[in-house]
Design a protein that fits this description.
By secondary structure, this protein is an alpha/beta fold. The protein contains 16 helices and 17 strands. The chain has helices spanning 3-25, 30-46, 48-59, 64-82, 120-131, 145-160, 177-186, 196-203, 227-239, 259-268, 277-287, 302-308, 350-363, 377-386, 398-401, 453-456; strands spanning 89-94, 99-105, 108-112, 135-139, 169-171, 189-192, 209-211, 218-221, 251-255, 271-274, 288-289, 292-293, 319-323, 341-347, 367-373, 389-394, 436-442. It has a five-stranded parallel sheet with strand order 5-4-3-6-7, sandwiched between helices. The chain has a four-stranded parallel sheet with strand order 9-14-13-10.
Length: 459
């Protein structure tokens, strides 16, 4: 038997088992569904330390302490966002329109998980699937298969004690590109979180798919803000998990008359700033090998990147700032850097700050996220109107809040849609509602107000 036939057989069996489990789960009431969903989050919360350590040991990316925070934080906020939401039977009745909405499952969900976020992405996408009474099959990244397998093993054990169908959640234990590709072709819906190659493969699978776009979060600092507070939030975001978060801040776009003060504040808070041409070139060459991001520096701390570039920095350096030669194609540093390094730019008028961000996003990251620190609502709304991004994060740490927070209204998730700008099917944060089929009952509205022709064509 060929490998191709083996792949087909393995996935066909998993799909068949998933369909049986899904039909059983489809009979669950809202309370039963929510009990399972809560348990998924609680398992990751309770095992946050072990799973974080496993992820770092296996992938050699990120920081254990940050992954613990992420495991616990995402478990809490995602469950909080799902708790009490209707996803079974009649979920809404609109007296004004006469529309009644009834939620139904989409079936079997294929969830492709990235190496950069192997625990909580598996958790959240499984939570979203089961919230809709769907079955889910997890396709882990080969470089993170052990920690993702462990996560699903713990989850399956916990929900089995609640009487959940055995194959409601499954995982490809020994993942390959071929097996993942076969899964995407056979599932009812695909959720692909990861590199653009995998996302494109998902959209080419012939099945409804939800993917994400590349990140390259532009960070604008407006005049008149509390610089100490803004800089602290930016540093927190850029160094979180050693910079591997797609929603992490990538640039500092500061007013020219405050630029020096801004850089001093970064230095005071543990950053290393350079305008030196030799140092800047050395860092560019180590971060972007042959113009592409060097995979070997992904998730490394700032001091290790400096060492690789042959640059001496203080031992306590948290972040490296490099003054860019210009936006967009003028400097490779305008692109996404999955490590604690940021490019800096100075602007005169606020419209120039928006233009710098816009040019950088055209190079990479269009559709994802921009961060702004400002007390000027007019400027904030100007940025929102003029930048092709799906999220504008205001006065917050983008890395940890663009995917939802207790303190903002973004849907808590680990999968951030980037709209048509990022070649995605949604322009919002992916959540359980995207894994529901909605039947709508339309009643005849005998008392509806029908305009006259004169009223209809009035301007």
């Amino acid at each position: 038997m060929t490998d191709t036939n083996n792949n087909i057989s393995v996935i066909d069996t998993m799909i068949s088992n998933a369909k049986v489990a899904q039909k059983e789960c489809e009979l669950y009431n809202q309370q039963q569904v929510d009990r399972l969903v809560m348990e998924l989050a609680k398992v990751v919360f309770d095992n946050a330390v072990e799973l974080a350590q496993m992820a770092v040991d296996e992938t050699q990316m990120g920081l254990v302490e940050d992954k613990i925070k992420k495991n616990q934080g995402k478990a809490k906020i995602i469950w909080h966002s799902l708790k009490g939401k209707k996803s079974v039977g009649i979920i809404s009745k609109n007296e004004e329109t006469g529309i009644v909405e009834i939620a139904k499952p989409v079936g079997v969900v294929a969830a492709v998980i990235p190496t950069t976020n192997p625990i909580v992405t598996a958790m959240s996408n499984a939570m979203f699937a089961i919230k809709g009474r769907n079955a889910v099959i997890i396709a882990p990244h080969p470089r993170a298969k052990k920690c993702t397998n462990k996560t699903i093993e713990l989850i399956k054990k916990a929900i089995a004690e609640l009487g959940a169908p055995e194959n409601l959640i499954q995982i490809i234990e020994e993942p390959t590109i071929e097996l993942t590709g076969e899964l995407m072709k056979k599932a009812d819906v695909v959720v692909a979180t990861g590199g653009m190659g995998m996302v494109k493969a998902a959209y080419s699978s012939g099945k409804p798919s939800f993917g994400v776009g590349a990140g390259n979060v532009q960070c604008i600092i407006d005049r008149g803000v509390d610089l100490q507070d803004a800089v602290a939030k930016i540093i927190t975001g850029r160094i979180f998990d050693n910079g591997i978060i797609c929603a992490g801040e990538q640039t500092v776009i500061a007013p020219i008359d405050e630029y020096e003060e801004v850089m001093k504040e970064f230095i005071n808070q543990g950053a290393y700033y350079t305008e030196d041409e030799n140092e800047s070139n050395a860092l560019r060459n180590i971060i972007f090998a042959n113009g592409l991001m060097n995979k070997d520096i992904v998730g490394l701390p700032a001091k290790d990147i400096a060492k690789l570039a042959g640059i001496k920095v203080p031992e306590e350096t948290k972040l490296i700032l490099i003054k860019a030669n210009g936006p967009g194609k003028m400097d490779l540093l305008s692109k996404e850097k999955m490590c604690p390094v940021m490019a800096t730019y100075a602007y005169n008028e606020f419209t120039e700050a928006i233009e710098i961000a816009k040019i950088n996003l055209e190079l990479e990251g269009k559709g994802h996220t921009t961060s702004i620190h400002s007390n000027n609502d007019k400027h904030i709304e100007m940025a929102g109107e003029n930048l092709a991004v799906c999220r504008l994060v205001v006065n917050q740490t983008s890395a940890t809040t663009a995917g939802g927070s207790f303190y903002n209204g973004f849907a808590p998730t680990n999968t951030l849609g980037c709209g048509s700008w990022g070649n995605n099917s949604i322009s919002e944060n992916f959540t359980y509602k995207h894994l529901l089929n909605i039947s709508r009952i339309g009643y005849f509205m005998k008392d509806a107000s029908v305009p006259t022709d004169e009223e209809l064509w009035e301007v």
